[in-house]
Design a protein that fits this description.
Elements (H helix, E strand, L loop, with lengths): L5 E4 L7 H10 L3 E4 L7 H10 L4 E2 L5 H12 L4 E4 L15 H29 L2 E6 L12 H21 L4 E8 L10 H4 L2 H8 L10 H12 L10 E4 L5
Parallel strand pairs: 1-2, 1-4, 2-3, 4-5, 5-6, 6-7
Family: Belongs to the short-chain dehydrogenases/reductases (SDR) family.
Keywords: Oxidoreductase
Organism: Sneathiella marina
């Protein structure tokens, strides 16, 4: 489904990075991956072992990373902003403005930078896809998580707006918006293994369970493939019926 597609994914050791990269590589994609940990050679090697055929990049700046992929492959077919950042819990009275700025920087500004530089090359090629791995949380809002939910909501709006701006260049832009997916970033092992805590979490989900990361990875494959060529400007929920 993704044979010969050149794909760049960020925060590759977090959120949907590993399951998504594995699923896309299995479908024939050429994966380039960014992660803060990849400044370390051992971390790069570990990722490349876990995702055979992938290339883990030591670079960290969006502009340099995209240029590296373009130099190596001549094009970038799919840009996946798999931005991950802790969902900091704080009532508004206690919320730190610095924490809010850091959340916005990680979940909105960085993805905007990648989209900005990637779209330049995609326009020249008259084709491309930009996917923001965001969250379903803004659909309903979550009390005491205003910083995280606001940042994710901004990203969802960014995807919808860029879709209208870039559509005439044959560039599709969507947000994959999960919630309640098994991920140590948001559901640490100690919570999953706590029966009472797990029941409390899953009681909110119509399907009665957390989503599997592999299921989300398969959804990412679809969005990255030509099968989604007429889908753009959408916030596509993956939340077991919660959203």
């Amino acid at each position: 489904m993704l044979k010969n597609k050149v794909i760049l994914i960020t925060d590759a050791t977090h959120f949907l990075g590993i399951p998504g990269s594995k699923a896309m590589a299995t479908e024939g994609a050429k994966i380039y991956a960014q992660d803060a940990a990849f400044s370390d050679a051992d971390s790069r090697a570990a990722f490349e072992t876990e995702v055979p055929g992938a290339t883990a990049l030591s670079l960290q700046e969006p502009e340099a990373i995209v240029e590296k992929v373009i130099t190596a492959e001549g094009r970038l077919d799919v840009m996946i902003n798999n931005d991950a950042f802790p969902a900091l819990k704080a009532a508004i009275d206690d919320a730190s403005i610095d924490d809010f700025r850091e959340t916005i920087e990680a979940l909105m500004v960085r993805g905007f930078r990648y989209a900005k530089v990637a779209s330049k090359h995609m326009k020249a090629a008259s084709q491309g896809k930009i996917i923001f791995v965001s969250s379903a949380a803004p659909k309903h809002g979550i009390p005491n998580y205003s910083m995280y939910v606001a940042a994710r909501g901004g990203t969802n709006a960014l995807a919808q707006t860029l879709a209208k701006e870039l559509g005439r260049h044959n560039i599709q832009v969507n947000a994959l918006a999960p919630n309640f997916v098994e991920s140590p970033t948001y559901f640490p092992k100690e919570i999953i293994e706590n029966e009472a805590a797990y029941k409390k979490i899953t009681a909110q989900i119509p399907l009665g369970r957390l989503g599997k990361r592999e299921e989300a990875g398969d959804y990412l494959v679809f969005l990255a493939s030509d099968k989604s060529n007429f889908i753009t400007g959408q916030v596509l929920y993956f939340a077991g019926g919660w959203a």
